[in-house]
Design brief:
The complex is a heterodimer. By secondary structure, chain A is an alpha+beta fold. Chain A has 4 domains: 2-267, no CATH class; 310-501 and 509-538, no CATH class; 625-749 and 787-954, Immunoglobulin-like, CATH 2.60.40.1730; 1090-1194, Immunoglobulin-like, CATH 2.60.40. Helices cover 47% and strands 16% of the residues of chain A. Chain A has 35 helices and 33 strands. Chain A has a 7-stranded mixed β-sheet, with no helix packed on it. In chain A, strands 7-8-5-11 form a 4-stranded antiparallel β-sheet, with no helix packed on it. By secondary structure, chain B is of the alpha/beta class. Chain B folds into 2 domains: 3-215, Rossmann fold, CATH 3.40.50; 222-285. In chain B, 33% of the residues lie in helices and 28% in strands. Chain B has helices at 41-48, 70-74, 92-102, 108-121, 137-149, 167-179, 193-199, 217-224, 238-244, 277-285; strands at residues 3-11, 17-26, 29-34, 56-61, 64-65, 77-80, 155-159, 185-190, 202-207, 210-215, 228-233, 247-253, 256-262, 271-272. In chain B, the strands form 3 sheets. Chain B has a 6-stranded mixed β-sheet with strand order 6-7-8-3-9-10, sandwiched between helices. Chain B is globular, with a radius of gyration of 21 Å. The chains are: A alpha+beta, B alpha/beta.
Chain lengths: 1194, 290
């Protein structure tokens, strides 16, 4: 009864606090905005991994966002629960409260429940906001419609319930055991770190650990729903099972235990639990006291207030401020947490297919700095407040303020001190980084890079934040308001881009991104970085001058007095410094604004989208079906100036009119209109331009008759204009230029791929629905390859020159080379046979490794310090060439090169003879043990080499399923090459990763999942992941040789063909004809989405006459999925591999068993211990854990 | 050196008149400023210590305009606020050294000498290596005086220095105060009359924002003495006397109440009483002085 009364008064107290409702309101708005963003047109946040078919109001959606936003409430829960536990002490009520005859339980339990209920109130904000948003007319009807209130409530209870219970119990315990608030906040930080730590266990092998140790259950939730199709996520309730359930139970249990301990152990006094209280003992009382009065003369000494004295004063004040921060008892907790988290995160540095990358310096620094970021934000915000209030909190303000120091010194000292602290925290990167590299056996140390990165770049990045945080606290003159302002700033900076504010210029402390690459160094972004840093430093100085005016000195706190004081302090020097800094700032702003917007032609992405819409509206009707000439030969001279980020292109394109009507007008696009220096058409043409949409319409003086030819010569000066926004130019860089032809060569006719593709964007711009790709059977799809309609295969020649010291590189073979004036090397590359209209120009300083023992010479051009995988690549190229020549026919060129390019992109791409390969994927991979690690360097190499056949020899028309003939077949081919080198177990593991990727990515599908034969070119999870698995499984079913013979038949029929180009249907038809016995399997593989659920069930064994009879009665399901993932079960009757393990390591056998007709009996000579169905993962099965079972004796 | 305060006035935003036309002149020596809590003492002290601005009036210290040229005042000021805190983990000598730099003593040897002298003077030399967080109230206050005395100040302001100290500690503090201020202007603000009576040749009583009277303690006592009378009564008589007579104070003497009144002639049963500074103080704050 007493307890109930106390609980009531507790709750009344909470509900009377405006802050509680303020935060509830905030969380409510967060939920509202979330719903508006994923299902409506509000541009509030971008929500990743929530695809177009998933309804925004399903129980899963509520739980997903409830849990995510609930994380943000952690600190509020800390405030509520620890606040409830410490309130008596902080209010100094404890002597009164603790002397009443209320029992410990009656005192503590209502306190806890009060905090718990307030916490529950807060975390209910986002789901409630989402629910209310659903009722508002801002959502698109097709994104909602899965509301299930009781189901949602139940799911929320399962996920959020334990979270609130556990966190509030933890914070209540910390609060009551320490009798302090701050340890609870520190606990919150650690909890967050633990959560992020759990997400570090994201690799397939150790995900179970992550699921269990994440106290917020979000990893478990992800694990539960990662394979869910849209249909499932719209209908199923996210109720955890297995490890997920264990996670919920574990943390609920931990929460209850913590709580119980707190209830029992909390002493009813202000000191808290004794073992902990000792940790923050106050300084020892001085007891000895001499009471002899001493009359000592004080010597008269000189006092000085010159510059040297002033500097000494500043130094002393700074030292004092630094001392206060590092002497702060929680500071080292921050440092410890940061170090811990850095070490934890370092373990996970760049894994691909479970294989680590070398800890190259830039990667290590980026990773550690990223880790540190969260801590820096917390430390800056928190200690800015502590430092501004340093003297007043302690009561020494009047002592210090009445000393003869300049008004600006307390401010300056704090800015310097906080900067030093931030820098000190950064130094942990310098400590952890090299240590970690050493530990991983990486010994290319780059101390200069570390030092410059941390002590120059990061310093310049953080000074503005420090100045702003201190300025905000000084101006606010109220700690909570100050913290609110600083946190508001950080939040705004995180979200500003998703709010649509993309221009860096007006956003305090923003600057275009800067990425370091071993090849290209700081790249083209470094200039903008310095200018922007100077710009913001000027802002800092102006801000400091302004802060000096509002800095509180003395005890006049009223607004009027601060204003009067500010006016008094606005003296000559302040005006001069602030004025000059402001002028410099405004000057930079004007310069940057001009350079970015006017010269650099900055465009917001929403403006770009409007232009795309305008282009479609203005040109589609007239031009989409208008004939345009096609390129029949390319002859170009390209002069690269990498250090100026410039390329001069003189191109001569031979054109033909392939249509049966004359061409009089043509639509022409250059990637950048301003770069076009001149053009000449023969026959001559006049031009109309639409500079806004970057479109040219040429009217020919003489129409090109059907079959007639024309010649276009053009000159393009591709160069950087003005200042970049967001990120710098990355194609032409100091070392490692990789310029695609599309960036400098024109294209003709209406550009379908400029159209807005996202259905939501199209609706917003009132554009009709648009198919993502031409239908598989649309005859127009055969007219051009899916690479574009500018040309078919063309003779290609380029004279490419570059700066001294670099090597120019393009597709084809070198037919001539020499040196221009000024020592500029040039080479003429010519394709030894016509190539697809798809080429690039490269330049850099590479080392070259070569092998001549393959079918043709192969080379790897690599950055000198990136040699570790070069042999692997050479071997991969030779092995691939041999295998593919044997299996699919000869390679069509005289040489094959892999060439490294900077890490601005992370892919490899196959041009004729030339495979640009990103620095960040193959070159820094660390395949330490090929038996354990998946050698993805070898795999990517083989995949790209395979494209010389699957893309460059046969390429599909521009319709559905096109990438089956390039990507899926390249994927299949590379699997075989990898298998030959590493054995089939390597493939099994690889396929496990591939099917995991397939299952998780299909749940985020935007429109609909399609069968392989009909997939769109941008459905990568189908053409890579599913394609590889399905083709491999099919070839295993019919036999590799038969399958590849059929594939070769197709290739022979279509090699270098087009127009008309083949389609995926042609490929499937060929397979059908060649493999008549596999009709159903072919249909399942290409024409439908077929998934399986195999479960080993409970296999039993019985001994009979010295033999062992194994009885299998597995669950075998075969499901056909619709585009949204809805499944229909069909009977299963198929041959499945079963791996049977006996006693001992070497006793095992793989048998092909026909399943689906009830129990099967297998006779063995030895005792089976366990069985595993489909050990190689050839059947796409979401849950492969249950494929395995121990055999039970019967 | 002379401190002249003329017509100083300060009204807070909430309408409270903290200072109302305050004027006085001071020569070197101890000056006691008496007044009950809320009389405006701290406002006056902080204004003189450059920490707060006045609305009206002028203050000069020698040639220096105290209200405008704050930096010049600070160079010659020693200020001990009523309440203050210190970096708890700092050692006494280090902290004093820091303040020595802030006060412009830049030469290291000079600092060391001054710090040692002041720590000895304030009797803290033996604990110079201890953390100040462990100091008792009296030690802390003495340490504050050491800070105030850094840099040979000409104007020393000590605001309520003995509040909350035990008698022994107060005695020590008086000794310390009497040491200083031979050639500096020392303003001692307090509501404890005894402090002033013991230390100050000149005193003023500040009440309701105004200087109600000033002079030497003897002179003030002499002025009051002829009109001061006392009577010892029982507890239940006090209320009636207070209602009927200009009572300035009553205090317990061995279980009975001694009531003091200010009157032109002795009321019935009252006898003349020797005047102390305390009587002067009570007479002023009860409004019975004039």
């Amino acid at each position: 009864m007493t307890g109930l009364l106390l609980l009531r008064s507790e709750l009344r107290g909470w509900l009377r606090r405006p802050g509680v409702h303020l935060f509830f309101g905030l969380f409510f708005l967060l939920g509202l905005a979330t719903m508006g963003s994923i299902a409506g047109s509000i541009e509030f946040i971008q929500v990743g991994g929530f695809g177009g078919q998933q309804k925004a109001d399903s129980p899963t959606a509520f739980v997903l966002f409830g849990v995510i936003w609930g994380l943000f409430a952690t600190m509020n829960i800390a405030a509520a629960s620890a606040g409830a536990a410490t309130r008596d002490v902080t209010d100094r009520m404890h002597p009164l409260v603790h002397s009443t005859p209320v029992s410990r339980w009656n005192l503590l339990v209502p306190r806890y429940l009060g905090g718990l209920l307030v916490s529950a109130y807060l975390v209910s904000g986002p789901p409630l906001g989402m629910l209310v948003a659903r009722a508002l007319p801002i959502l698109e009807p097709e994104r909602i419609g899965a509301l299930n209130v009781p189901g949602t409530l139940l799911s929320l209870l399962v996920w959020l319930g334990p979270n609130v219970l556990f966190t509030s119990a933890l914070f209540f315990a910390i609060g009551s055991l320490t009798r302090r608030m701050f340890p609870a906040y520190i606990g919150g930080v650690f909890l967050f770190v633990g959560y992020l730590g759990a997400s570090a266990f994201s690799d397939l092998d150790d995900r179970t650990i992550g699921v269990l140790i994440d106290p917020f259950g979000s990893t478990a939730l992800d694990e539960l729903t990662r394979y869910w199709t849209p249909a499932e996520s719209n209908t199923l309730l996210p109720i955890p099972t297995g490890m997920g359930l264990a996670n919920r139970a574990l943390w609920t249990g931990v929460g209850l235990a913590t709580l119980l301990f707190a209830f029992v152990a909390t002493p009813l006094d202000e000191h808290g639990w004794q073992p902990l209280a000792r940790l923050w003992r106050r300084p020892k009382e001085v007891e000895r006291e001499v009471s002899v009065p001493v009359s000592a003369p004080v010597p008269r000494v000189a006092r000085r207030f010159d510059l040297g004295a002033r500097l000494l004063q500043l130094r002393v004040l700074t030292r004092r401020a630094v001392g206060d921060v590092i002497g702060h008892r929680y500071f080292w907790a921050f440092v410890a947490a940061a170090l811990l988290f850095e070490l934890l995160n370092a373990q996970n540095i760049g894994k691909m297919y479970g294989t680590e990358t070398w800890p190259v310096t830039y990667k290590v620094i980026e990773m550690l700095e990223g880790t540190l970021g969260l801590f820096l934000v917390v430390v800056t915000a928190f200690y800015a407040g502590e430092l501004v209030w340093q003297d007043r909190d302690r009561g020494s303000d009047q002592l210090v303020d009445s000393t003869p120091i300049p008004d600006a010194f307390p401010l300056l000292a704090r800015v310097v001190a906080l900067t030093a602290v931030v820098l000190g925290l950064h130094t942990t990167v310098l400590l952890v980084g090299p240590l970690f590299q050493l530990f991983k056996g990486y010994t290319t140390f780059e101390p200069a890079l570390y030092v410059r990165w941390i002590y120059v770049h990061s310093l310049l990045r953080w000074i503005p934040t420090v100045v702003l945080a201190i300025g905000m606290h000084a101006l606010a003159n109220h700690k909570v308001v100050g913290h609110g302002a600083v946190i508001g700033f950080f939040v705004a900076m995180v979200f500003r881009e998703s709010w649509g504010f993309e221009l860096d210029l007006p956003w305090y402390d923003s600057s275009p991104s800067l990425r370091y690459s071993d090849m290209a160094g700081w790249g083209n972004g470094i200039g903008a970085f310095w200018v922007y840093r100077a710009y913001w430093l000027a802002a800092c100085v102006a801000l400091l001058a302004a802060t000096r005016l509002v800095w509180v000195r003395g005890t006049s706190l009223g607004f009027r007095h601060r204003l009067a004081e500010a006016r008094r302090r606005l003296d000559g020097p302040t005006l001069a410094v602030g004025g000059v800094a402001s002028a410099v700032f405004v000057g930079f702003a004007a310069f940057l604004g001009w350079e970015t917007v006017a010269v650099g032609q900055y465009e917001n992405s929403s403006d770009t989208r409007s232009e795309q819409a305008a282009y479609e509206r203005g040109f589609k009707a007239t031009w989409a079906h208008a004939p345009h000439p096609e390129v029949t030969a390319v002859d170009a001279r390209v002069d690269l100036y990498p250090s100026e980020a410039r390329a001069l292109v003189h191109g001569t394109l031979s054109l033909v009119n392939p249509h049966d009507v004359p061409i009089e007008r043509m639509l022409v696009h250059f990637a950048d209109e301003d770069d076009v220096v001149s053009w000449t058409m023969d026959p001559p043409a006049t031009e109309e331009r639409d500079p806004e949409l970057e479109v040219r319409v040429w009217t020919l003086s003489r129409p090109i008759p059907p079959g007639g030819t024309a010649t276009l010569t053009f000159e393009v000066d591709d160069h950087v204009q003005g200042m970049p926004n967001g990120g710098p130019e990355t194609s032409i860089v100091g070392n490692g230029t990789f310029l695609h032809h599309g960036e400098v060569f024109p294209s003709f006719g209406y550009q379908e791929d400029w159209e807005l593709s996202d259905p939501a964007d199209r609706r917003k711009h009132d554009l009709p629905e648009r198919p993502r790709m031409r239908d598989l059977d649309d005859p127009e799809a055969r007219a051009h390859s899916y690479l574009g309609d500018d040309a078919h295969r063309v003779p290609f020649q380029v004279r490419l020159s570059t700066e001294p010291g670099q090597t120019p590189l393009a597709p084809g073979s070198v037919v001539d080379e020499g040196m221009d004036e000024g020592g500029r090397p040039w080479r003429t590359y010519r394709a030894d046979r016509p190539i697809l209209y798809f080429f690039a120009f490269l330049s850099g300083k590479w080392e070259i490794a070569r092998r001549d023992d393959g079918p043709v010479p192969v080379e790897v051009w690599y950055h000198p310090t990136h040699a570790s995988n070069v042999d692997r690549m050479l071997e991969g190229m030779v092995a691939s060439l041999r295998t593919f020549e044997e299996r699919f026919g000869p390679y069509q060129h005289e040489i094959l090169r892999i060439v490294e390019f900077p890490r601005y992109d992370s892919y490899a791409q196959s041009f004729p003879t030339l495979i640009p390969f990103s620095e960040s994927i193959g070159f820094v991979a660390r395949v330490s043990d090929p038996d354990e690690d998946i050698d993805y360097v070898y795999y990517v190499t083989a995949h790209e080499v395979a494209h010389q056949w699957w893309a460059h020899q046969v390429i599909a028309g521009n319709g559905q399923g096109a990438t089956l003939l390039s990507e899926s077949l390249a994927q299949y081919s590379s699997l075989r090459v990898m298998e030959e080198a590493y054995g089939s177990e390597h493939i099994d593991r690889f396929l496990t990763y591939e099917s995991d990727r397939y299952f998780s990515m299909r749940s985020g599908e935007r429109d609909e999942e399609l069968p392989l034969m009909r997939m769109y070119a941008d459905q990568q999870y189908i053409h890579y992941q599913k394609g590889g698995v399905v083709l491999y499984a099919l070839s295993e079913r019919v036999g590799r040789d038969r399958f590849e013979a059929a594939v070769r038949t197709f290739l022979d029929q279509w090699r270098f063909a087009g127009p008309p180009y083949p389609t995926a249907r042609d490929f499937v038809d060929t397979l059908r004809a060649e493999l008549p016995d596999a009709d159903d399997a072919i249909s399942d593989a290409f024409e439908r989405i077929v998934l399986y659920d195999l479960r080993a069930g409970e296999p039993t064994v019985r001994e009979e006459g010295g033999r062992f009879l194994l009885t299998l009665d597995p669950v075998t399901k075969r499901m056909v999925a619709a585009g949204d993932g809805a499944e229909t079960e069909e009977p299963f009757h198929d041959e499945v591999e079963v791996r049977i393990e006996g006693e001992g390591d070497d006793v095992h056998e793989v048998r092909a068993v026909t399943l689906g007709d009830g129990p099967v009996e297998i006779a063995l000579d030895w005792r089976p211990v366990s069985v595993k169905l489909d050990p190689r993962g050839l059947f796409l099965d979401r849950d492969r854990d249950d494929d395995e079972a121990d055999v039970v004796p019967r | 050196m002379r401190l002249e305060v003329k017509g100083l006035g300060k009204t807070y935003a909430n309408g409270v008149k903290a200072l109302d036309d305050v004027s006085f002149d001071l020569e070197p020596g101890m000056f006691g400023l008496l007044g009950p809590n809320g009389a405006g003492k701290s406002t006056l002290m902080r204004t003189l210590a450059t920490l707060q601005d006045a609305d009206r009036g002028a203050v000069t210290l020698g040639q220096v305009d105290v209200l405008r040229d704050k930096e010049a005042v600070r160079r010659t000021l020693g200020y001990l606020p009523q309440e203050f805190g210190l970096t708890p983990k700092a050692r006494a000598e280090d902290l004093l050294d820091t303040f020595a730099v802030l006060k412009g003593i830049t030469a290291r040897a000079d600092r060391r000498a001054v710090v040692e002298a002041l720590l000895r003077k304030t009797n803290l030399w033996d604990v110079r290596r201890q953390q100040v967080g462990g100091f008792s109230g009296g030690m802390k206050r003495r340490f504050g005086i050491a800070i105030a005395l850094l840099g040979d100040p000409k104007l020393i302001i000590v605001d309520e220095p003995t509040a909350g100290l035990d008698p022994a500690e107060r005695g020590r503090f008086h000794n310390l105060l009497s040491e200083i201020g031979r050639d500096a202007i020392v303003i001692l603000s307090t509501h404890i009359v005894e402090d002033v009576a013991n230390l100050c040749p000149r005193v003023a009583v500040l009440f309701q924002g105004r200087i109600q009277l000033q002079g030497s303690p003897e002179e003030l006592c002499d002025r009051l003495a002829p009109r001061l009378f006392r009577k010892v009564v029982a507890h239940d008589e006090v209320a009636a006397l207070e209602a009927a007579l200009p009572v300035i104070s009553h205090r317990l003497r061995a279980g009975r109440h001694e009531v003091r009144v200010v009157a032109d002639a002795a009321p019935e049963g009252f006898e003349p009483a020797p005047a102390s500074l305390e009587d002067v103080y009570f007479a002023v704050i009860s409004g019975r002085w004039s």
